[in-house]
Design brief:
The protein is an alpha/beta fold and 529 residues long. It folds into 4 domains: 12-193, 3-Layer(aba) Sandwich (Rossmann fold), CATH 3.40.50.12780; 207-351, 3-Layer(aba) Sandwich (Rossmann fold); 356-416, Luciferase, Domain 3 (Luciferase, domain 3, Roll); 423-521, ANL, C-terminal domain (GMP Synthetase, Chain A, domain 3). Helix content is 30%, strand content 27%. The longest helix is centred in the first third of the chain and has 19 residues, at 38-56. It starts with 11 loop residues before the first helix and ends in an 8-residue tail after the last helix.
Length: 529
């Protein structure tokens, strides 16, 4: 049974109300051994929304959620929407300096914290004083009051002032996510209810999801892939099962026990599961769907996951945060995947309904290859700081297009991701696309992944790379194979085996950590001569 789909775009929290209508007594959230039904979660969110409104002396404009996969994270986000506010997720695991910059940029009226978030409040308060700090824990509230770390009120919802969900239409901001900025400061990406609603309207018909389904919830709310996990589940009356990092890396331990039917993953996280080398084919028979997103999906990773979850449909989605989670998708045909070489990436597929795209090459519209530019209802209006808009938009034929910075090719499977247009490096005067080198490494070392970087060497920038998925490797043999695939100037000077790549909090390969490791292995930082 699938949840009914109400036609048209609506406020984000109205999608939760769809799930509530179809499955009021079923589980909406499982977290740390506790379960909330849809009715329980709704009533609690109403209580928390009422406490936010009462504490702020009226409807708050923006509510920060400084919590990490605790009840405060999910209830705080939903309560902020119910209160008619914009939710702003923050990560307690992020450095205080970054969160301070986010708090200052967002201009919060209130903040919801768990125990980990409360530990940062004293350092965040000077950046932008907030009127209300809400927590579900009396102990955390007492500690905050005692520390006098906050000028505003510390509130624990008691159910005395519940608020019904507010509905002001779809033009207001639903949430603001902050991504890395080229200036070194996080960039605020405001997403309207209409943007994320257009995504859900387009993507949910791709799946037959209903109250019988159980979603994995792997990612922090600061990462936009979590918006798919949370809202696709709740819009369908399905159960959202929150996993920690250890559980996400060992799906065989939780998928069967928790009855998970819908798994979400970045390709890097799936590659990390593969590198453990402990799962046999068919280890995840209960999965009905697996959705990959966030990075290019290597064919080899898709093959391995398809063998682990033989009953699962594999969907590869693509999209930057600025386009409300994802805007294209490709449903994997295992037979086609088997026919491809290991260096290939799975196509990112065709645009979702309502998404318009064009390819830009050398300033001109191209029909085959170029930078992907996107327009339509999922496209955000611009960054929180308009200074970040410079160069990110294209005005053409009376329409505004977002320039993704991703280079793609149009072919029979839709769009194929070719790498970032800013993925070029310059080594000894040659311009090199590191994505091309990485594809060649995967071809020379079948079954393994690759990360190639330009790092400072004794005579300037040099190429170095990691072959990921094995602790030992005959690097000389791989380099010999590469010499048959690449010109000499594109050959990495060093290749090191790595059993598993370090991942950042969003489950992507941590290229900064790999670059630091490459510099260390090359003997420390060097200045160009």
């Amino acid at each position: 049974m699938s949840a009914p789909r109400r036609e048209g775009v609506k406020p984000l929290h109205a999608w939760f109300l769809d799930g509530l209508a179809v499955n009021p007594d079923g589980p909406a959230l499982r977290l740390n051994g506790r379960s909330w039904t849809y009715t329980e979660l709704h009533r609690t969110a109403c209580d928390w929304a009422g406490a936010l409104i009462a504490g702020c002396g009226g409807r708050p404009r923006r509510v920060g959620v400084l919590a990490s996969k605790t009840e405060e994270a999910y209830l705080g986000f939903l309560a902020a929407l119910y209160a008619g506010a914009t939710a702003v997720p923050l990560g307690p695991e992020y450095p205080v300096e970054r969160n301070r910059a986010v708090v200052a940029a967002a201009g919060l009226d209130a903040i919801v914290v768990d125990a980990a978030g409360a530990a940062q409040v004293a350092d965040l308060a000077p950046a932008a004083p907030v009127r209300v700090c809400l927590t579900g824990s009396a102990e955390v509230a007492a500690a905050l009051r005692e520390s006098a770390a906050l000028d505003g009120a510390v509130v624990v919802p008691d159910g005395s002032t519940p608020a019904e969900p507010l509905d002001d239409g779809v033009d207001r901001l639903a949430y603001i996510l902050f991504t890395s900025g080229s200036t070194g400061l996080p960039k605020g990406v405001p997403i309207r209810h209409g943007n994320i609603g257009a995504f859900l309207t387009a993507v949910l018909p791709r799946y037959e999801i209903g109250p019988q389904d159980v979603f994995s919830q792997v990612y922090e709310l600061t990462f936009d892939l979590s918006m798919f996990e949370v809202w696709a589940a709740w819009a369908s009356g399905a159960c959202l099962t929150v996993l920690n990092r250890v559980q996400a890396l060992a799906p065989e331990r939780v998928a069967v026990r928790q009855g998970i039917t819908f798994w979400t993953s970045t390709p890097s996280l799936a590659a990390a599961v593969q590198s453990r080398g402990v799962l046999a084919a068919g280890a995840l028979p209960g999965l009905r769907y697996t959705m990959f997103c966030g990075e290019p999906l290597p064919v080899e990773t898709a093959r391995h996951w398809s063998a682990l979850a033989p009953n699962a449909v594999i969907d590869n989605l693509y999209g930057p945060t600025e386009l409300a989670v994802a805007c294209t998708g490709h449903r994997l045909d295992p037979a086609v995947a088997d026919a491809g070489g290991p260096d290939r990436a799975v196509p990112i597929g065709r645009p979702f309904p309502g998404v318009r795209h064009l390819l830009l090459e050398d300033g001109e519209v191209s029909g085959t290859v170029g930078e992907l530019c996107v327009a339509g209802p999922q496209r955000f209006d611009g960054y929180l700081d308009p200074a970040n808009d410079d160069g990110r938009f294209l005005d053409l034929d009376g329409e505004r297009w977002y320039r993704t910075g991703d280079r793609v090719r149009q072919d029979g499977d839709g769009l194929v991701h070719l790498g970032r247009i800013d993925g070029q490096v310059k080594v000894r005067g040659y311009r090199i696309e590191v994505g091309e080198v990485e594809r060649a490494v995967r071809r020379a070392a079948p079954g393994l992944d690759a990360a190639v970087l330009a790092v400072p060497g004794p005579g300037g920038e040099v190429l170095a790379g990691f072959v990921i998925g094995r602790a030992e490797l005959d690097a000389a043999a791989v380099l010999k194979q590469l010499a048959e695939l690449l010109p000499p100037y594109m050959l990495p000077g060093q290749l090191w085996p790595l059993a598993a790549a370090p991942l950042n909090p969003n489950g992507k390969i941590d290229r900064t950590a790999l670059r630091e490791e490459a510099v260390r292995r090359l003997g420390g930082p060097h200045r160009p001569t």
